[in-house]
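Cross-posted from the bioinformatics board.
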Amino acid sequence: MLSAAALALLLTVALALARAALGPSVFDRLQAASTIGTCAMLLLALLGFLDERPEFLDLALTYGLLNVIGVIAVLKFFHLGRIANKSHENAEDA
Amino acid sequence: MIRSLVSAVALFSFWLLLSGMFVPFLLAAGFGCAIAIKLFSKRLSAIAEESDVLELNWGKFIVYCPWLVEEIIVAAWDVSKRILSPRLPISPALVEFVPSQKTDVGLVIHANSITLTPGTISVEAEHGRFLVHALTEGGAKSLAGSEMDRRCAELEEV
Amino acid sequence: MLIDILSGIFLAGGAFFCLVGGIGLIRMPDFYTRMHAASVTETLGAGLMLVGMMLHAGLTLVTAKLILIGLLIFLASPASSHALAKSALMSGLKPLLGATPSDDEVPPSKP
């Protein structure tokens, strides 16, 4: 059942990848990326069980943390054109 | 100060959970890392020291979590049926309503619960104004003054 | 033995809801409705799968880590969904409103 679940996750990743390719907006692609991130996290955990290597769970945890930060960083980049937050420069721009 | 200490201890126990090894060197390294992260985050002022996150009715919160899980299961099942139905019976709606919570914690819990429940996503969340996108008109209508709203407001009664 | 069967059922359920979310991501007509489909994957799909793995692992450090992964998903994914929806609306992406033409369950009405 573990490998069947892994297969279903791979299919979900394929569907999300299709959505990322189709777009049309950048937000659709980001949503697809975040779904792929969630699936990758579960897939890593499942791989840990399939190979009997529990270290994979740590990778899954790290991937999950990076996924959230990644989505927010890309959003901020598309919003402001930069990632670093310089509030005093913002005040000068406005 | 107590808040800093609590979060340092929490960071250290997170380290212990991840490493699962109790060798003196690793314990010392974990302790050093916890302190260093605490100092860095203070320098970045990433953690609001005066936040009222802990002022929550924890007894009610423990009852609230299973209720939310049940709500998520019901909503996810409903959304799944709509996705798989050949006619795709959806009627997206954008609604604005007034949440009855007063504190930041209550508002955050309410907004997060709305987003976690499939079929509704909180688009904007401010004091006294929530903007929510719902997959169906019915889901949109049931948001204002819902049981979730009432339960989240109860969480604030310390 | 019973635990194994139960764990299998949970894993199968999780796999099913993950797939449904993926299908919804393709079928839904606009960005905001796609987010609802993705949230099925992120909540029920991931949750059931994690419960299945927890039952498979038994009471060990592995279960504690799985609980941590679950907490991470349930606390952080609404935050990123909210950020995504808010910036989409702020950037001027208009949501599709009202019932789809094929819909006869809910009477169409403009808000």
